[in-house]
TrEMBL record:
Species classification: Bacteria, Pseudomonadati, Pseudomonadota, Alphaproteobacteria, Caulobacterales
A UniProt-annotated Pfam family: CoA_trans
GO MF term list: succinyl-CoA:3-oxo-acid CoA-transferase activity
Gene3D superfamilies referenced in this protein's UniProt entry, alphabetically: Glutaconate Coenzyme A-transferase (3.40.1080.10)
The keyword Phosphoprotein is assigned to this record: no
Record-given protein name: 3-oxoacid CoA-transferase subunit A
């Protein structure tokens, strides 16, 4: 069996990054971000990236690092709010943006992994989202045609992996990671724990190892909270 485990993020990225490539990066907000692979990508100096991700990190963290370093040319995203650098670069014309409804983004990625080049959806009909795209009526309703998304490289984060690359994700950190694992020509996964072969329950595997090319043990697991919202604890009465 081919060894999929690499000693570091830098080693896993060696020979697979190139200027102008398309990159998928898992995560939703700051949950499930490939926290180890993103800084390693920054260190490669690769530029003119087209990045497919739900959002572009937060100030000082996640994909923001690549954006701040001038390595991203275009974002294909769903949520771009509350990122001041993103706003500044987009409004000044230094960053291209393809904005997608969130469900459409997820389905475009899933379609890319499933080999489905196009599909129809009602979401976005009659809005700027549908501009320039074919529309068609089905059973009296209008639908807009969306195309698949695929990438040269997908970087994702999982909870556990075995040496064959079978993956388990934890709670909301699952988000876009499983579909992105299927849609990259090459997929690199960082995990919190690598277990022995056969240790993962087959019924609990979220992504089969056939989709995974390289694995590293993550060295950054901060799991930051983007917005902490709390309420005062109720005072106990005696």
């Amino acid at each position: 069996m081919k060894n999929k485990i690499y000693e570091s993020a830098a080693a896993a990225l060696e020979g697979v990054v190139f200027d102008g490539m398309t990159l998928m990066s898992g995560g939703f907000g700051l949950s499930g971000n490939p926290e180890t692979l993103i800084p390693a990508l920054k260190d490669t100096g690769v530029k003119n990236l087209t990045v497919i991700s739900n959002n572009c990190g937060a100030d000082g963290f996640g994909l923001w690092m690549l954006l701040n370093n001038g390595q991203i040319r275009k974002m294909i995203s769903s949520y771009v709010g509350e990122n001041k650098l993103f706003e500044q670069l987009y409004l000044s014309g230094q960053l291209a943006l393809e904005l997608n409804p969130q469900g459409t983004l997820a389905e475009r990625i899933r379609a890319g992994g499933a080999g489905i080049p196009a599909f129809y959806t009602k979401t976005g009909v009659g809005t700027v989202v549908a501009e320039g795209k074919p529309v068609e009526d089905f059973e009296g309703e209008t639908y807009v045609r969306e195309t698949w998304l695929r990438a040269d490289l997908a970087i994702i984060k999982a909870w556990k992996a075995d040496p064959e690359g079978n993956l388990m994700f934890r709670m909301t950190a699952r988000n876009f990671n499983p579909v992105m694992a299927t849609a990259g020509k090459l997929t690199i996964v960082e995990v919190e724990e690598i277990v022995e072969a056969g240790e993962l329950d087959a019924n609990s595997i979220h992504t089969p190892g056939i989709y995974v090319d390289r694995i590293i043990l993550s060295t950054i697991n901060e799991k930051r909270i983007e917005k902490l919202t709390t309420r005062p604890r109720e005072t106990e009465t005696v």
